[in-house]
Amino acid sequence: MTLLEVRDLTVTFPTPRGPLDAVRSLDLDLEPGGALGIVGESGSGKSMTSLAIMGLLPRAARRTGSVRLTGQDLATLSEAELRRVRGDRVAMVFQDPLSSLNPYYTVGLQIEEAYRAHRPGTTRRVARRVAVEALERVHIRDAARRVHHYPHQFSGGMRQRVMIAMALCTEPELLIADEPTTALDVTVQAQILDLLQEIRRETGTGLVLITHDLAVVSEVTEHLVVMKDGRCVERGTVEQVFTDPRHPYTRALLAAVPRIDDEIGELRAVRATDPTTDPTTDGARA
Amino acid sequence: MPRFLLTRAGSGLVVLLLVCLFTFVVFFALSPDPAVQICGKNCTPAVIDQIRGNLGLDQPFWTQFAQFVAGIFVGRTYGDGAGAVHCAAPCLGYSFQSSQAVWDMIVQRLPVSATIAVGAAVLWLLAGLLGGLLSAVKEGTFLDRFTTGLTLTSMSIPNYVLALVLQYVLVVQLRWLPFPQAVRFADDPGQWFASFVMPWIVLAVGYAAAYTRLTRANVLDVLRENYVRTAHAKGLPPSLVWRRHALRPALTPVVTIFGMDFAGLLGGALITETVFGINGVGKMAADSIARNDQPVIMGVTLLAGFLVVVGNVVVDVVYTAIDPRVRVNA
């Protein structure tokens, strides 16, 4: 059965100038253990997509369409039922690990509470052991000591490892990583991507990776969706899209990726065409 | 931690010494000759000289200052021979008006002022935190706007006006309350409460309004924090998200402000006690200023400085306990 099946997802915000569609009739499919990249520039609706899947949209937002997790439509669940899915079956890693961790509590406590929320009756001792193991799994050295530390005592890359450990401690079926490497420097980015790959291999967790960076997607996922203005403009395997992009926007994105053989000082900006007037807009491969 | 405390206490001591010096300059060196005031009517130059000698006013400035400071720590003796008066530590001198020891005057009146201060603080904390929380939870609703209006109104009413209005309405017109008196709780709890409830309200209203605004703003800020979103994404129950991830960060800054405000309450007590005629430290300060009773003014000023310095140290210590970022980096 498909792990994640999103159909006709639309997210609308009321604005003074009328309703604004942040996401427009988006379809996504992910097999168990698979990896899907969602690529797009700021404001393309990719983060709203992830929040819509989690049921964490801002109160003003309206959502239509369906989000099915192993066949179950999350839109039909009550808030309490949805809460049991969040963090247990679907977990999330956010962009900025410093602000996404609460500065007032040790990382140990923050992992423990994630675990205990879904395993009622777990003692603190057991939860503590889970937290230590979770930190060990993301290769944080000296984990038994580090659980007592606060987020500000970790470096940026280590904090993101903590976030990943926290997301994985409940062994979710699906991990949504929203720009997990954007706030990190390049060498640390590579380490975090390696870690995500390793975790997928070892745990079989499905991964939705949201990023603006095509290079990141190409390293981690097999399938990718290119979003622009809330719409999917192109989809396919990474290889297909990289070798034979259909939509001019995708071509512009690909051309903008800096290459090692570029002339020094040469960077290409994305000059996207307006999809509403461009006849080649329908680049989606069904 | 103990080292941190020591340095804080040390710097606090330096601040107090500077406050001492400043008030000493203002009230002793710059004001009219105290000897003339003490001497009063039917005065002769000989008597004035004698008083000067007794008070040490004929000494150079720094000697006088040193004697004053020494008096606080080890006590001092005024005059010599048979007429000598020993003033035990902590000695803040004697009132020019009543000849009472300033220290004793303060000690006598402090419980009343403390009662007003603590009662008002409890009141404004309760009102401010509850009002702010409610306002934040119900953001944008009628209740929120009503609270905002109420806080703005109460912040713009001067507390002496409120004191007079309350007194007129509740005591004179409706006769619900007696005129406030400094009753001790042990003597008559009912009377005690009836006496202090108006001063509490008057002193608390402005702070309650400010704390409501502060709490509301803090809570709304924290609710927009990424870590609150993380907490929801982890599937934590909303009550836990509130209690653990929203309230604690939102209320931590209130501790800082509260420490400072509470320490600085003597200024507020001055007005409240004077209006209600309650004989606390605040009223004593007002009276001593009106009569230019310099030793008393100095004593009260030092007390106020001391409270602020201690309040700051306490806030620092409490803060290290509740904010791990301060604790670990210190």
Automatic annotation (TrEMBL), chain A:
Entry GO MF terms: ATP binding; ATP hydrolysis activity
Localization, UniProt: Cell membrane
A matching Pfam family: ABC_tran
UniProt entry keywords in alphabetical sequence: ATP-binding, Cell membrane, Membrane, Nucleotide-binding, Transport
Alphabetized InterPro entries for the sequence: AAA+_ATPase, ABC_Ni/Peptide_Import, ABC_transporter-like_ATP-bd, ABC_transporter-like_CS, Oligopep_ABC_C, P-loop_NTPase
Signal peptide (UniProt feature, chain positions): none
Annotated TM spans: none
Recorded GO CC terms: plasma membrane
Family, per entry: Belongs to the ABC transporter superfamily.
UniProt protein name: Peptide/nickel transport system ATP-binding protein
TrEMBL record, chain B:
Keyword set, alphabetical order: Cell membrane, Membrane, Transmembrane, Transmembrane helix, Transport
Record localization: Cell membrane
Primary localization class, coarse: membrane
Segments forming domain ABC transmembrane type-1: 110-319
Record Pfam families: BPD_transp_1, BPD_transp_1_N
One of the GO biological process terms: transmembrane transport
Membrane topology: Multi-pass membrane protein
Alphabetized SUPFAM superfamilies for the sequence: MetI-like
InterPro entries recorded: BPD_transp_1_N (IPR045621), MetI-like (IPR000515), MetI-like_sf (IPR035906)
Chain ranges passing through the membrane: 12-30, 112-137, 149-170, 190-210, 250-276, 296-322
GO cellular component: a single term: plasma membrane
Family according to the record: Belongs to the binding-protein-dependent transport system permease family.
Name the record gives this protein: Peptide/nickel transport system permease protein
Annotated source species: Promicromonospora thailandica
